[in-house]
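Fig. S4 source data, part A: sequence.
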Amino acid sequence: MRVLLAGEIMKKVVLTFIIGVLLLTGCSEKIEDLLVIEGNGNGNKTDSMKFKEEFEALNSTGIELDIDINNPIKFLNENEIINFLEEKTGVVFMGTPNCNQSRNILPILFEVVDENNIDSIYYLNPNNLKEEVYVSLLENYLENAQEITTPNVLFVRNGEVVGRGVASSTPPEEMTHYQKDIIKENYLNFILKMQGE
């Protein structure tokens, strides 16, 4: 009579599990079909998850972020941004994951939005824009701008930009608590204008 060692038992359990998965999935060739992918229940990643991954992936290169998986980010594409700025109300964050100034203001922006019960921050990475959309944004929505700097936070009410927060000239690593408080106060004032108060 042969005695099975713990390692052999484990190998048999794993092998049985793999065979069971293959039988249940019809021997799918895609690994995604065999694994449960974190997402919104149907395998798709939410905007919040994509944003978190994009920004946290660069934590080792600059300002480290710990973004909540349930953050209020909703992605806008280049077609949606123009429509939003013509008709909608809300906060638009234009930034890039590799911009330390964008990374520096995110916790402040998230905090102010949360404190004021705003459900969404609409996100646009200006590096992904076609030239004609980029020019349209500059000419029609970013008063006196020569280029779209990041971060650029727009506070929009019924298609009108009522406030705009832009990059600080202070390097993020040198920004004081006082300077961060001023940014927070400016964002709060812009939110009040956006809400019509």
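Fig. S4 source data, part B ends here. Confidence is low (pLDDT under 50) at residues 13-42.
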